[in-house]
Task: structure prediction
Amino acid sequence: MNETSLFDQLEFTENPVYEGIISDLQERQYSVCDGFFDLEEVSELRESLHRKHVLSQFKKAAIGSKTNEIVERTVRGDFIFWLNEAEADPSENRFFRKINELTNYLNRTCFMGILHKEFHYAIYPAKTFYKRHLDTFQNDDRRKLSFVCYLNEDWNAKNGGELVLYPQKDGTENVVEILPLAGRVVIFESQVLEHEVKPVLACERLSITGWFKTR
Result:
């Protein structure tokens, strides 16, 4: 292999989408990225979610870490299915490829030290919600970034289910409401931003939720 081809392999290519996410996180601790996954990818992931739901593979979500889970219906009402990259179907493989690309980019450009990732499908039936909380635990602070990708079809404000973030700036709390539109991705700092899911008023609210974790 000559020196030119070796250099080409090592050359870093800037990704404007990822750079936008990084800039948002630095400036306001969260990023909203529309079209991170295209509608075809979203449709395929939604179909995969439905297949697993039909097979009764979802369970009632709990609060706390995996080793200390408590099912609390007055705090959260969603049902989840944990994704395993080693057992992923084709649509989930495409999802993980993009996630791994983003992880490598963040580690290379921001030295974030992300070593682990965990993701699950989430279904919020009508009249369910998730009260305000932080995505971290007293005995486990490895979660660095929280991630949500919405898989809903034809969602609008009448359906409710907004993600509400509470960023702080100069000692003042702000309120940011985000509609769960198809293909929209929200990434935010797990240990900093409190957030909640407002009650779902109609239809089921569908998403993939997960975390980028350090050692």
Remarks:
- The helical segments are 3-10, 16-28, 39-54, 90-110.
